[in-house]
Amino acid sequence: MTTPLPTTHRALKVPEVMEALGLSRFKVYDLIRSRELASITIGRARRIPAESLRTFMETKLEEAA
């Protein structure tokens, strides 16, 4: 069962992005390393701003059109 992107969160955890995109942990970190998906690090925690995820998806949709 797929859960929608949380609208109450401003920064998402990697597992939340994995669920939203249907991708593996490796692929999400690969997108972060390649700077296709912006993220921040707080201590040892990696967070992806919700706006960054929206921008990434919009860019991919535009490329596919």
From TrEMBL:
Residues 12-59 form the Helix-turn-helix domain. Coiled coil: none annotated. Pfam families: HTH_17. InterPro entries: HTH_17, SinI_DNA-bd. It comes from the Bacteria. GO terms for molecular function: DNA binding. This is DNA binding domain protein, excisionase family. It comes from Streptomyces pratensis (strain ATCC 33331 / IAF-45CD).
